[in-house]
Every structure is written in structure tokens, then in C-alpha cells.
Specification:
Beta-Lactamase, five-stranded antiparallel sheet, 23% strand, Alpha-Beta Plaits, single chain, binds ligand C2E, binds calcium ion, 721 residues, alpha+beta, 4 domains
Length: 721
């Protein structure tokens, strides 16, 4: 265990703490609602405000915390005061500073989050904290902000306490100036002798206006006599009748606000002085409002948060209402946040919130569920109305947004579920809408889907598949097969395409069609893609020892380009296997090109510039035109097997294939035809000027050993296919 450090100015800190004259037996009851709110807000077993003394800690307000050892060395808060912001211990049992702390060993604390509470001098006196007996994975930024806001409220309460003590101790005006509380003082004649900025703000006058003015000026005419009377009573040593009362203050603009009065008096330089601490009498109400807002609304967008959403859902189910839910998630927002910063990201979210509100005037609730996920509740169970609502949300979000000169294009996905048709409790309704959303998100931009019962079965199957894929990877069940690529001009095997296979213990050798979609959608995609690249390079290095011109083609998946490190990974592998860049060809498909991620294009360019070849796979199957390819750093195209087949059919189809080959050559792209299944087609393609062919006619994909035996001649010559 590590004992908490002491402040470099520990004696100054302890002097500052003494100014609050805290009685450990009484604590500070004004803090009770804040601590209570903290425990509820974060769903924690305990919350407290602790003041850190010389050797011990005083709990001046607490909730859910029983008798415990209060020595400073054991206190988590004593660590929290040594830093700014939120001090976080996600799991104390695995934290070297706390794992053997008796509070941890006794099972009282595993999770801790605390924010220091400072005196106006800047000294950290203690902390507001929440604790839990269970560890927590994280404490989101939003949670941190909320805890900090609660700590600010707690600090206000502490400051009031300090001033009350100071006023009794007759050090009023010196304490008042830096204070965030509203303080005004006057002499025995009622002329203002001092006032701080907080008082001027609360009263609605400037500090200049108030200097040497009669203090009664700031009160409503009807209350002025009471003020005069109070001052007179104080001068005779009696307590004013208005102590703790609410009178009307009158602002310079003539308006009124109620203020609560706390009087004190003392002698300065032989003259009587009267001091007033003023509190906004609306403050309790506004404080309650603030706490309510904090607990139920999202600070960024002002929309109801998850808490309130859940309450509405519970109420709607309890009232047996028929209603529906739309979940919406944004696509492309992470880019905004990463490239343009959080502040702009927050503004985008506020605009989105506004668009949701105007697109859904009939919604009973529009909430921010968290992150970039929003939820709307509609008072209808009509799927047609629901679909129309989702579409109007999506078109509202799709309108380009111009912020600070940036043109932002956001897209969204929507998932919908209906109650009571699809669920009988909030958890199920949200879960089903999430399933529909998940499926919408894999269906391309702007998709909106209504929950269908089979989605649940599919989700279960997907999860099982993912578990199986993890096992497969761990147990080394993936393997590579190789298919020859042949130069049509002379029939030489110049290289191979590496194709993944899964040697399944029960189902035998599986083709990519059986598992690749699941793999690409799983967290494993990047790792398996890296493994394929590494194994293909290793095999290539081995074959190039005898066949120095041999090349290999490897298929890329989108996940490998998502994190931005692919150029380094490729360069690293080439170095490791001692390969020149031009012997490696990476195949990309349309889904990679159409991802429109700027970073992807930059990575591809970097890879091309390093000398590695890039080819565009499955040409002809999608929407990508040759014109689009002009903007991409590809050097090869691979004509899809569907197209190659056409060659054998009609003259018109032959003309299409011929046109593609001619145009590709004009653009300087090398052309490989896939799916060459007969000699006739091979000969025909050769006649059209197609550079290479790949297909069952030349050879099916097979294991590395089989490939070497069939196509690689040990004497160093590559045999003709
Ligand atoms: P692809 O990149 O277009 O690979 C060619 C596919 O066509 C292979 O299927 C191959 O066996 C098949 N093929 C080759 N010649 C012929 C032919 O003459 N006629 C017919 N009908 N088919 C032929 P395979 O191995 O099942 O792979 C399917 C797809 O899976 C590949 O299509 C590729 O997109 C993907 N894939 C395979 N391995 C990997 C990999 O390691 N990573 C990634 N990201 N994708 C891979
Ligand atoms: Ca391929
Ligand atoms: Ca292909």
C-alpha cells in the first residue's frame, strides 16, 4: 500500500481547513442532498464528502458508508486531493496503491472516484467521492463531468460555511473579497463600506454603484425600514429580527429578487461595521432543478438522457401503452471528433438533436442514449408510420452541415421495435431495437430496419460463430491455399493468390463463403488479416529462393485499413521476410474503396509508393467504374469471373469484356481475368490483350505443398500450366 503524499504547503492547507471549524460530530448537513444525489446518480453503494485532517479524515456528509477506519493513510480521498479533476480507481484490488488497504481487503471499496474540494486559497481540503463494492470498467467522460459539477456544488456549501465562521470571527471583509458567496458590508450609518463581485451580481448593481451608497438602496422600498432596524439592533449587540429572513432586493433595473439575510457585526479601526451574507432565496429551488437536470438530461445536447428514457419506458409499459421506439446511430461522427476536435463534435451533436426534434414533432420523447446513439419514442404501433418517421429522421440528418467552414456529411442507421408486439419490458424493447439497428448498420448507409423475431435467432448464431472463430484462430485452424496465376502470353505460372481456408474439426475444409462475412464483422478481422499477410509473405520468401520472380497476391479486408497502420505493417513484414516490395500484390475490393475514409486512400497511396502493387479485385461486380479507379492508386484490375464467363456466350458480351480490357490498358492498368475455366476462354482473352489469367483451367487453389509440387520446378524454372 502507498500512503498518500502530503501537500507541499501542508501547514497552509491545514490552516485553510481550520477556517471551516468543522465539528466532526455534526458534519455539514447542507451537503447531505448532494452526497445523496451522487450515490443515486452513479448507482454506487456509497458517497461522501471527506475533509482530510493532519492524521485523520472527517466524514462531514455520507451516504451508505458505515463505521470505518478514518486514518489519513488509508483514505482514498487523501490521494484525490493531490491532483486535479477526477481521481479514479477502477478496481482497487488490482491497484498497487490500494490492493492491501484494509478498506479494500474488507470488501468495502473496489471502485472509487473522487474530486478535490478547494478553498478560495486553492488548498485542497477534502473530496467528494463515490465508492462501490464492485469494480467498474470505466467512468465515462460524461460521468466525470457530472461528478465535477456535484463537487462544485459541494464547494459552494463549504464556502458558505467558511464565511459564516469568518463573520463570527470578525474577519469579515478580508474573507469576503475572494469569496464566491455574496457579501456586502456597511458602517453604522448604513453606508456601504465593501462589497464583493458575487454580491453585485446577485443584487443586480455594479460594484461602483454600491460604493459608499446607502445599503437600503438595494432593497425594495417596503423592506428598507426593516434593514435600518436590523442595523440598529446589531449596533446594540442584539440579533436583528431579519436574521435568516427573506427580503426583496431591488435591482438597478427596478426588478426584484428574494434574498436570504445573514447578519454579523464587528469593530474595525474603532468603528462599527455590519456585514451581510446574501443568498439567493431561489437558490434552493434552482439547486434542486440543477440536480434534477444533471440526473436526467444530457449536458451536451440538452436532450433527456438514458435515465429519463428508461423511466419513460417503464411508465409506458406499466400503463400498457402501445408505442414504438426508434434507435438512431450516426455514421461518420467518429471522423468529425477525431479530425476536428471534441468541441466541434459537441456542436454537431447539438445540431443533430435539433434536427431530431424538428423531424419528429409527434415523438413523446427524444433522448440521447449515449455516445452517438439517440432514441425516440412514438405514440403509435403502426409500422408504416414508424418507417416514415425513421425516413424523415434520416433525411434530416443527411442534410450537409456547415460548421466553421467545414462541410460535414453525416449518415445514420435506424432500428425500430414496437411495444407490446415485440416486447413486454424496457430491456427487451431496447434489446430488439438494438438488434434491428445492428443489422441496419451492416446494410449500408441510411438503412432503417424494423425488428423481426428471426433477428434474435441470427444474433445468437452470430455470437456462436464468433466464439468458434476465436477458437479456430487460437488453435491454428486457419490455413492458406494458393491458386496459380498464369501469364497468358506464354502460359507461365508467375505467381499465386493466397486464399484463406478453415480446417474445421467437424465440418472439414471450409471455404471463405462459409465464414468470411462473420469474420469480417468480428473483432478478429484485423488480426486474422495480419496473419494471412504474414503467412503469405513467409511462403513467398520460401518459394522465391528458387523462383526469384515469383509474386503473391493477398486479399485485404476493410478492418486492416481501419486503424491506419497498414503501410507500416506491410513494410515491417517485407523487412522481416526479406522481400522486395514489387513481389507482393494486395487486392482490394469495392467495399474498401467506397468506404470514403480519407485515411484509407492515404494508406493505399503510401503502400503503392513503397513499391507494393495494388490490384482492384472483382471488377465488374459493383458500381465502381474505370473512371473511379483513375483516382485510386491501383496498378492492376482483376476482371470478375462472372464477366469472364460472358466471353463464351454472345458476341455482345464479348464486346463488353473487350471494351473493359481495352480501357484498362489505356489507363495503364495490368489486367488479370479470373474464372478462366476453359482453354477456349484463355485463348480468346489472350487475343484481346489480357495479361494474366487465373481459374480452374490453370489450376484450383490447393495447399502450399501441393502447389509447389504441381507448379514449381525444383530446378528453378516455373513450369507451364
Ligand atoms: P476472390 O478474391 O475473387 O478469389 C477468387 C475466388 O474464385 C476463390 O474462391 C477461388 O477459389 C475462386 N475461383 C478461382 N478460379 C475459379 C474458376 O475458374 N471458377 C470459379 N467458379 N471460381 C474460381 P474462394 O477461395 O472461395 O474465395 C472467395 C473469396 O473470399 C475471395 O474471392 C476473396 O474475396 C475472399 N478471400 C479469400 N481469402 C481471403 C483472405 O485471406 N482475406 C480476405 N480478406 N478475403 C479472402
Ligand atoms: Ca482476390
Ligand atoms: Ca476476385
Amino acid at each position: 500500500m502507498r500512503c498518500p503524499d502530503r501537500s507541499p504547503d501542508e501547514s497552509g492547507r491545514l490552516r485553510a481547513l481550520a477556517e471551516y471549524q468543522i465539528n466532526p460530530a455534526q458534519g455539514l448537513p447542507a451537503l447531505a442532498p448532494i452526497v445523496d444525489m451522487a450515490a443515486r446518480l452513479f448507482d454506487c453503494s456509497g458517497a461522501a464528502v471527506n475533509m482530510i485532517g493532519d492524521t485523520s479524515v472527517t466524514l462531514i456528509a455520507s451516504q451508505g458508508i458505515g463505521q470505518c477506519d478514518l486514518s489519513r493513510d488509508l483514505s482514498f480521498c487523501a490521494h484525490a486531493i493531490n491532483q486535479d479533476g477526477v481521481f479514479l480507481v477502477a478496481d482497487a484490488t488490482t491497484d498497487a496503491r490500494f490492493h492491501d488497504n484494509p478498506l479494500v481487503r474488507g470488501g468495502f471499496i473496489r471502485f472509487y472516484a473522487g474530486v478535490p474540494l478547494r478553498a478560495p486559497s486553492g488548498h485542497a481540503l477534502g473530496a467528494l467521492c463515490v465508492v462501490d463494492e464492485q469494480p467498474r470498467k470505466g467512468f465515462a467522460i460524461m460521468d466525470r463531468q457530472r461528478l465535477i459539477q456535484l463537487a462544485e456544488m459541494a464547494a459552494d456549501k463549504l464556502e458558505l460555511r467558511r464565511l459564516e465562521v469568518a463573520s463570527v470571527a470578525r474577519r469579515f471583509s478580508a474573507s469576503a473579497i475572494p469569496s464566491p458567496s455574496a457579501i456586502i458590508s456597511c458602517d453604522g450609518d448604513g453606508q456601504v463600506t465593501g462589497c464583493n463581485a458575487a454580491a453585485a451580481e446577485l443584487l443586480g448593481w455594479s460594484m461602483m454603484d454600491l460604493s459608499a451608497a446607502p445599503i437600503e438602496m438595494v432593497f425594495a422600498p417596503a423592506d428598507r425600514a426593516q434593514i435600518r432596524d436590523s442595523i440598529a439592533r446589531l449596533l446594540t449587540g442584539a440579533m436583528p429580527m431579519t436574521e435568516g429572513d427573506v427580503l426583496m432586493a431591488q435591482r438597478r433595473d427596478g426588478g426584484f429578487n428574494p434574498v436570504e439575510l445573514h447578519w454579523s457585526s464587528w469593530t474595525e479601526d474603532g468603528r462599527s461595521q455590519v456585514g451581510l451574507i446574501l443568498r439567493n432565496a431561489n437558490a434552493d429551488q434552482s439547486e434542486r432543478d440543477a440536480l434534477y437536470r444533471l440526473a436526467n438530461f444530457d449536458a451536451v445536447t440538452g436532450l433527456p438522457n438514458r435515465n429519463l428514457l428508461w423511466r419513460h419506458l417503464e411508465e409506458s409499459f406499466a400503463a400498457r401503452r402501445a408505442f414504438s421506439m426508434i434507435l438512431i446511430t450516426l455514421e461518420g461522427f467518429a471522423d468529425v471528433n477525431n479530425t476536428l476536435g471534441r468541441t466541434l463534435g459537441d456542436r454537431v451533436l447539438r445540431h443533430v438533436a435539433q434536427r431530431l426534434r424538428s423531424a419528429l414533432p409527434h415523438a413523446t420523447l427524444i433522448a440521447r442514449k449515449g455516445g452517438v446513439k439517440f432514441a425516440a419514442l412514438l405514440p403509435s404501433r403502426d409500422p408504416i408510420l414508424l418507417g416514415a418517421a425513421a425516413r424523415s429522421i434520416q433525411s434530416a440528418i443527411a442534410v450537409p452541415l456547415v460548421l466553421d467552414g467545414h462541410d460535414l456529411h453525416l449518415a445514420s442507421f435506424a432500428g425500430m421495435a414496437i411495444a407490446p408486439d415485440h416486447a413486454s419490458c424496457p430491456d427487451d424493447l431496447v434489446g430488439n431495437a438494438e438488434l434491428a439497428l445492428g443489422q441496419a448498420a451492416s446494410g449500408g448507409r441510411e438503412t432503417a430496419l424494423l425488428f423481426l423475431p428471426q433477428m434474435r435467432a441470427q444474433a445468437i448464431a452470430r455470437r456462436q460463430m464468433e466464439t468458434e472463430l476465436h477458437h479456430a484462430f487460437e488453435l491454428g485452424q486457419f490455413t492458406l491455399h494458393f491458386q496459380p496465376q498464369v501469364r497468358l502470353r506464354d502460359g507461365h505460372v508467375t505467381g499465386a493468390e493466397a486464399l484463406i481456408r478453415w480446417q474445421h474439426p467437424v465440418h472439414g475444409l471450409l471455404m471463405p463463403a462459409a465464414f468470411l462475412t462473420s469474420l469480417d464483422n468480428s473483432v478478429l478481422a484485423e488480426a486474422v488479416g495480419g496473419w494471412v499477410l504474414d503467412r503469405a509473405c513467409a511462403q513467398l520468401a520460401q518459394w522465391r529462393r528458387f523462383h526469384s520472380a515469383f509474386t503473391i497476391s493477398v486479399n485485404l479486408s476493410l478492418a486492416q485499413l481501419r486503424r491506419g497502420h497498414l503501410p507500416e505493417i506491410v513494410a515491417g513484414l517485407l523487412r522481416e521476410h526479406d522481400l522486395p516490395p514489387e513481389c507482393l500484390e494486395l487486392e482490394i475490393t469495392e467495399n474498401i474503396i467506397l468506404d470514403r475514409h480519407e485515411d484509407i486512400l492515404a494508406q493505399l497511396e503510401q503502400i503503392r509508393d513503397s513499391g507494393v502493387k495494388l490490384s482492384f479485385d472483382d471488377f465488374g461486380t459493383g458500381f465502381a467504374s474505370l473512371n473511379l479507379l483513375r483516382n485510386y492508386p491501383v496498378s492492376h484490375i482483376k476482371i470478375d469471373k462472372g464477366f469472364t464467363c460472358l466471353v463464351g456466350t454472345s458476341a455482345a458480351d464479348r464486346a463488353i469484356v473487350k471494351g473493359v480490357i481495352t480501357m484498362a490498358r489505356d489507363l495503364g492498368l495490368e489486367v488479370t481475368a479470373e474464372g478462366v475455366e476453359s482453354q477456349t476462354i484463355a485463348v480468346y482473352l489472350q487475343g484481346l490483350g489480357c495479361d494474366k489469367g487465373q481459374g480452374f483451367f490453370f489450376g484450383k487453389p490447393c495447399s502450399a505443398d501441393c502447389f509447389a509440387e504441381l507448379y514449381l520446378n525444383p530446378t528453378g524454372l516455373i513450369a507451364s500450366a
